[in-house]
Amino acid sequence: MTWFQWLISVYEYIRPVLDVVLLAFILYKGYELLEKTQALPLVKGTGFLFLVYGIAWLFNLTTLRWVLTIIAPGLFIAIAIVFQPELRKIVMRLGQTEFFKPNAAAHIGKLDAVVTAAELLSEKRRGMLAVFPRKINLKNIIDTGTRINAEISSSLIVAIFEFDGPLHDGAIVIQSGKIISAGCFLPLSERMDIRKNFGTRHRASLGMAEQSDAVILIVSEETGAISLAYDSKLYYDLSSAEVTRKLMELLDKGSRKESDQKELTKDEREVIVD
C-alpha cells in the first residue's frame, strides 16, 4: 500500500466524524448569529409552518395541505418583508467578519484610562460614546469620523467629549490600543421597545450593538449613568468595577470560552432592551 492509498483509507475512516463535526459547528455558529441579530422569531415562525405542514402530510389532511400549498409562497414573501432588517443584519455580519480579530490584548491593557475618563465625564454630566470592535470590521464606521490614531489617555478622551467641539457628538473607536477615529456616526436602533427617556447616544449604541459584535461604552449626558451595549442588548447604569470587568471579559472572549466567564451581577442583569 502506497502512502497515497494509506491517506485515502484514513480519510474514509475519519470522513463521517469530520462531516458531523463541521455540520455541528455550522449549526452552532448559525444559531449564535441568529441569536445576536434577534432573528430567532424568523426561525421559529418558519419552523412552525414546516411543523404544521408535516402534521397535515402525516395525517393526510388534504384541505389543510391544499391551503398551505396555496398560501406558502405569499407567507415566505411576507416573512422576508417583515424580517428584512434582521436578514440585512445577518448578511452584514457574514460579510464583515474578519478571520483575524483585532488585538484585544492591547484593548485590555489600557481599559483603566477609558473607564477613568468615563467616570470623570459622568461626574460632569458630559456624554460619551466609545466603540470597541471585536471580530467584525468597522471600517465603514471609522471612515465617518476623523482619524487621529492617538495613544489612549483619559485626558485626551475627556478633552474630546468635555467641550462642545466638532468631535463631541460622535463616538470614538478604540482598536489595537489606540483611539483610531473620533466623531464617528453610529447607526440608530430601529427597535420600538426602547425607553422613551433614552437619548440619541443610547439609541446609537444599541444600533451599533445590533449591526455588529462591537462593545460600546456609553455615558449619559442627562443622568451621568455609565452603560454598556453589546450583542443587541443594553445594560444600563453599571458601576466602574462592573464596566471594567465586563469589558475585559468581552474583549478577551477570543481566548476563553464564554462558559468560563463570571456570572452577571444583579445590576448587569437589568437588561433594558432584550
Core attributes:
274 residues, alpha+beta, YojJ-like (1, eight-stranded mixed sheet, 14% strand, extended
What's the short version?
The chain has helices at 3-36, 40-58, 62-82, 84-96, 104-109, 111-123, 139-142, 154-162, 200-211, 240-251, and strands at residues 128-132, 146-151, 171-175, 178-184, 215-219, 226-230, 233-235, 271-273. The protein is of the alpha+beta class and 274 residues long.
What does this structure look like?
The chain has 274 residues and is an alpha+beta fold. It has 2 domains: 94 residues, no CATH class; 170 residues, YojJ-like (1 (3-Layer(aba) Sandwich). 52% of the residues lie in helices and 14% in strands. It has 10 helices and 8 strands. It has an 8-stranded mixed β-sheet with strand order 2-4-3-1-5-6-7-8, with helices on both faces. Helix 2 runs antiparallel to helix 3 and helix 6 runs parallel beside helix 8. About 10% of the residues have low confidence.
Q: Quaternary state, please?
A: single chain
The profile of the biggest β sheet is: 8 strands, mixed
Top CATH class of the largest domain: Alpha Beta
Helical run tally = 10
Poorly predicted runs of 5 or more residues: 98-107, 254-271
Give the helix/strand class: alpha+beta
Topology of helices and strands:
Elements lengths: L2 H34 L3 H19 L3 H21 L1 H13 L7 H6 L1 H13 L4 E5 L6 H4 L3 E6 L2 H9 L8 E5 L2 E7 L15 H12 L3 E5 L6 E5 L2 E3 L4 H12 L19 E3 L1
Parallel strand pairs: 1-3
Antiparallel strand pairs: 1-5, 2-4, 3-4, 5-6, 6-7, 7-8
